[in-house]
Amino acid sequence: MNSELDIQIIHCLDDIPVTAWNTLAGDDPFLRHEFFSALHKSECASEKSGWSPKFITLWEGSTLRGALPLYVKTHSYGEYVFDWAWADAYRRCGVSYYPKLLSAVPFSPVTGRRLLARTAEHRALLVMAALKLAQGKNAGYGASSFHCLFLPEDEAEEMARAGMMLRQGVQFHWKNQAGTGFESFEEFLKGMSHSKRKKIRQERRKLHESDIHFQWLTGHEATPDHWRFFIDCYNKTYRDHYSSPYLNLEFFLRLSQSMPENLLLILALRGNQPIAAALNFINSRALYGRYWGTQEFVSGLHFETCYYQAIEFCIAHRISLFEGGAQGEHKLARGFLPVRTWSAHWLAHPQLAAAIGNYLQTEAQHLDHYVDELNDSIPFRKAAPSS
Question: What homologous superfamily is domain 177-319 in, according to CATH?
Answer without folding.
Answer: Gcn5-related N-acetyltransferase (GNAT) (3.40.630.30)
